[in-house]
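cron nightly-structures :: item 1 of 1
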Amino acid sequence: MKYIKEDLLNFLVEKIENKEFVKATISNLKGNYPYEKVILKPVIIKNVYYIQSEQFQNKKAYHENLCPCEIKTILEILLDNFKQFLVQTTDEEIHILKNKKGFTGKSKKTSKQEVSLDHNRKKNYILDSETPIPFLIELGVMTPEGKVTKDKFNKFRQINRYLEFIEDTLKELKSKKLIDNKITVVDFGCGKSYLTFALYHYLKNIKNMDLNVIGLDLKTDVIEHCNNIAQKLNFENLEFLEGNIKDFNKLQNVDLIFSLHACNNATDYSILKGLEMNAKAILAVPCCQSEFNKKINKTSNTPLKENLSPITKHGILQEKFSSLATDALRALSLELCGYKTQVMEFIDMEHTPKNILIKSIREDFKDDFLISRRAEYDTYVKFLGIEPLLNSLIKNYYKK
């Protein structure tokens, strides 16, 4: 059967409007759409009907809830950019292919299907939200019966999101043969150590790895509390130390450095220590990036001041710009030090505004790549018109 695009579009919209639409799986990207696969399905959220778009890129899923009034525009874009469509309605399944001549498809009648509008299906977290986990109970995230407490559910989600990044990092390190089944990790600025305990539990009890984990923080009472919990849970090879990141010298070689919400230049010192200890991976979620903001204020007649005056004349905009500028330089600097680097969202913005993760894994870059990055770095710093502390800390580790 042949389909005209407009007729196909109207057919899909009609099924959605009549609540007869069950699901559409859209694949085989051939256009410029930023995602490689899309799944559409109806959901009810707070008694409002939406079409949920689940879009995939690099094995990660991104969700958006669309109002039915805008779905026709979205569908038209998808029809223009993909070649394969599997559409399920309450009584029919249609497989549509797109070629140079247009759309062709096969349909078959199916037994009556109910439209699932359940938005609150249980999410498959790495840590089960309904199974007692000793460290979560000790930290007050979970009840002894294995239920996540209401006021700590955001923390529970953050812990699982963190473990997803750890899982991806382990896969990359193993694929590059940088680690086997033994790993040494340092958590700089560990605080109450929700993530440090989660990391230990994940590596030891789920992945069955041999491990050595150290958490470092400045607060005496926090370190004492964390060590007490570790001893109570019999978490061997997990140690919490009191001290400054600058002065840490317990280890010579590590596999993974993690720094969560280390304030201002504490993130830079974490990066420096990672380089000094020959870390195979460095993960950082920075916080309070105030250095650039202060230094930009002291500069004049720089390309930044001349060209970005609509930003720099407003304090709040300059502060936000400075945070992004800082993390961009950190990512670029780590590439110069021989690390493949990605910058990504750590947790939803609604849970914390400090949600940028810099993920770096050691890589054997070719000389021309490093030369181009060095030129990019020099141009960038000249544009900012400042001398970043990070540059003075790690310039001896630049490959070119």
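cron nightly-structures :: done
The longest strand covers residues 48-57.
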